[in-house]
Design brief:
- The chain is built from 7 helices and 25 strands.
- It is mostly beta strands.
- The chain folds into 2 domains: about 270 residues, Thrombin, subunit H; about 100 residues, PDZ domain (Pdz3 Domain).
- It is elongated, with a radius of gyration of 22 Å.
């Protein structure tokens, strides 16, 4: 696959037979993890994220209702910061002035340009609930810091990274995220050194008509990332990116290009002809039902991404930055309504109705089952999916929390030890 240039051949990469492709506007969701409700499929949104390519979906809760407000993920983080992997005050990463076009005789094919960047492009694979997803990242330090989209790692319970040219796969953890900019910094857990890094160009110098190459883990197939050449078609764009089910956010200052991008490319590099990163691939326009490719793509400008990276590396405390993992209970829920309560024979008027329980989760260990209604977490009343999300997010992974639920057998209370999930 690495030898094939989609832009030159006109043929997209062929996904492995075992990969399951979600409809546009519903990519990467899989089963909703932790406390989040699994929303019903909706009509494709105009813009959709192209990254978290689902390679396995084991459970999708049928008939689940409105999800927990995603704005909850932006609450002020007043919890202890995860152990730093870099020293606060460390020299910030700075973009460089874009290099001049390659000299006469130099190759400017997509593959030749990508070859300058490929060693620092990594495959990112995550576990989300009972599903698996794949995206891309860029190495930004020789000791294993990686830049990617927040939505590539969001709601995951584990992250693995494959570095080009190295046979082993590394586990990694989230250092910090800015959800509003869709930027995340993750860190390889192993004691690594000497890794190649990408070079960032000053994105303020990018102009419409510039040649760019998109590089990423197309369709989650791994290996040397395919490359697709195109041009910058617009600057400073504002889009609403969505993964379906009502999860969407407005992203500003985006670079638009016509380089073909695929599911799995999110977090990958949009580079100039000198192989310098000018943007991070983030979203593409939906091209039709079950389409996995788009020639209208959007990237977070390199200057924007680096600003967030440097704030995270300095462990700045701010409401738009979140560090470490959140508590994870392991249920998919929807708001309890009078009809559901009557059908279940429960004398309740509110609560979070469990529509699925993640295997091996704290919820399953406590005995919470499908059709249970959670009414209290840690002493806080639960009257809806929103209040459940707020209650869970107020606790750290590893904390012991009391949970009360009601089912046809009566009321139950148990103490659970929360697992961890990425923001």
């Amino acid at each position: 696959m690495s030898e094939q240039n989609p832009n030159e051949t006109g043929a997209p990469p062929t996904p492995p037979e075992q990969n399951l492709l979600s409809p546009p506007g519903y990519e990467g969701m899989g089963p909703s993890p932790a406390w989040m409700a699994a929303p019903p499929p909706q009509a494709p949104s105009l813009w959709h994220r192209i990254a978290a390519f689902v390679v396995l979906i084991a459970i999708v809760a049928a008939g689940a209702g409105a999800g927990i407000g995603w704005s909850l993920a932006r609450v002020v983080n007043n919890r202890p910061v995860a152990q730093a992997t870099t020293t606060p005050g460390e020299t910030p990463i700075q973009p460089v002035s874009p290099s001049a076009n390659p000299s006469a005789g130099s190759s400017t094919t997509a593959d030749a340009i990508a070859a300058k960047v490929d060693p620092a492009i990594v495959d990112i694979n995550t576990v989300v609930g009972t599903g698996q997803a794949a995206g891309t990242g860029m190495i930004i330090s020789s000791t294993g810091e990686i830049l990617t989209n927040n939505h590539v790692v969001s709601q995951s319970t584990s992250i693995t990274v494959t570095v080009q040219g190295r046979s082993q796969t590394y586990t990694a953890h989230v250092v910090g995220v800015d959800i509003s900019q869709d930027v995340a910094v993750i860190q390889i857990d192993s004691n690594v050194s000497g890794l190649p890094t990408v070079t960032f160009a000053n994105s303020s110098s990018v102009q419409v008509g510039d040649t760019v190459v998109a590089i990423g883990n197309a369709l989650g197939q791994g290996g040397t990332p395919p490359a697709s050449q195109g041009t910058v078609t617009a600057l400073d764009q504002t889009i609403t990116a969505s993964e379906g089910g009502g999860q969407s956010e407005t992203l500003n200052g985006m670079i638009q290009s016509d380089a073909v991008i695929y599911e799995g490319d999110s977090g990958g590099a949009l580079v100039n002809t000198s192989g310098q990163v000018v943007g991070m691939i983030t979203a593409g326009q939906a091209q039709g039902f079950r389409s996995s490719a788009s020639n209208i793509g959007f990237a977070v400008a390199s200057n924007t991404a680096l600003s967030v990276v440097n704030r995270i590396r300095a462990h700045e405390q701010a409401s738009d930055l979140t560090y470490g993992q959140l508590g994870f209970l392991g249920v998919q829920v929807q708001n309890l309504d009078s009809t559901s309560a009557a059908q279940l024979g429960l004398k309740l008027s509110s609560g979070a109705l469990v529509v699925a329980v993640t295997s091996g989760s704290p919820a399953q260990a406590a005995g919470i089952t499908r059709s249970s209604v959670i009414t209290n977490v840690g002493g806080s009343a639960v009257t809806s999916t929103d209040t459940l999300g707020t209650a869970i997010k107020s606790h750290l992974p590893g904390e012991k929390v009391s949970v009360t639920w009601v089912d046809q057998g009566g009321s139950h209370t148990a103490t659970v030890t929360l697992a961890g999930v990425n923001p």
